[in-house]
Amino acid sequence: MVDKFVGTWRMISSDNFDDYMKALGVGFATRQMGNMAKPNLLITVDDKGVISMKSQSTFKSTEINFKLNEEFDEITADDRKTKTKITLENGKLIQKQKWDGKETTIEREVQDGKLIAVRYHLQLISLHPRTHYL
Fold first, then answer.
1. DSSP assignment, residue 16?
2. pLDDT number for residue 38
3. Which residue ranges make up each domain of the chain?
4. Of 81, 92, 113, 115, which has the fewest beta carbons less than 10 angstroms from its beta carbon?
5. Where are the beta strands (DSSP E) in the chain?
6. What is the mean predicted confidence (pLDDT) over 98-105?
7. For the domain bounded by 2-133, which CATH number is listed?
8. 25 falls in which pLDDT band (50, 70, 90)?
9. Average pLDDT value for the chain
10. Which residues are within 8 A (CB) of 85 and not within 5 positions of it... i.e. 6 or more apart?
11. β-sheet bridge partners, residue 51
């Protein structure tokens, strides 16, 4: 089921992402760079079931390697050190990040040939930015 996520996805739009970054406490300069970035997202799966997600932009590139349902250490693009677990639920990749008593959830799904990060939740704050990739 994760096969539909495999490929190189090019960001075409992002809505309300600045609000999400503000809620995380990301500084103004970093938010400006984040808002201007149009990263490509490369998703691969190796023969052992390890999934790689590489986000590449002119400002910053990040990579995580993981197996579904297994917690791992992640350093996010805004330099948070999180304990992260990614699961596959109802055809969506659900990424949960925990750090400093906080938690955020990112849901990704493929709709009409596009990868969409449809929801970002931060603790009790529920924001609904949408990021679209082709």
1. S
2. 85
3. 2-133
4. 113
5. 7-15, 40-45, 51-56, 61-66, 72-75, 81-89, 92-99, 102-111, 114-122, 125-127, 130-133
6. 89
7. 2.40.128.20
8. confident
9. 88
10. 69, 70, 71, 72, 95, 96
11. 45, 66
